[in-house]
Amino acid sequence: MRIGELSERTGTSRRLLRYYEEQGLIVAARTANGYREYDERLVDRVLQIRGLLDAGLPTRIIRQILPCLDTPRTIYFPDATPEMIATLTRERDRMADRIRCLARNRDAISAYLDAVLAYRPEASGD
């Protein structure tokens, strides 16, 4: 697929996709006329990269852990510097806190909706 389709399917700008390529996070083949050609698997990869960036991980660490997201997994232990381990530990713990917060908020919204719908059955949209 071309860069425009990958951009559309992932909600990621073309500029950002080119940046991911510059950073070694994704690889595009080149057609005879020089256009980038992306493999279908990169849709999920780009979404994973975006999630990791949103979680606060820098691209240099994302590049190192991307092989762990593949099947079969390939983990390169020599790349695991003390800084990387500390960063990943901190980010993992921060994500766990965020997940707990999101789950609480989801449960509160669900409880609210349940109460509203029990009080006003017409609000359910049925």
From TrEMBL:
<keyword id="KW-0238">DNA-binding</keyword>
<feature type="domain" description="HTH merR-type">
    <location>
        <begin position="1"/>
        <end position="68"/>
    </location>
</feature>
<dbReference type="GO" id="GO:0003700">
    <property type="term" value="F:DNA-binding transcription factor activity"/>
</dbReference>
<protein>
    <submittedName>
        <fullName>MerR family transcriptional regulator</fullName>
    </submittedName>
</protein>
<dbReference type="InterPro" id="IPR009061">
    <property type="entry name" value="DNA-bd_dom_put_sf"/>
</dbReference>
<dbReference type="GO" id="GO:0003677">
    <property type="term" value="F:DNA binding"/>
</dbReference>
<dbReference type="InterPro" id="IPR000551">
    <property type="entry name" value="MerR-type_HTH_dom"/>
</dbReference>
<dbReference type="Pfam" id="PF13411">
    <property type="entry name" value="MerR_1"/>
</dbReference>
<dbReference type="InterPro" id="IPR047057">
    <property type="entry name" value="MerR_fam"/>
</dbReference>
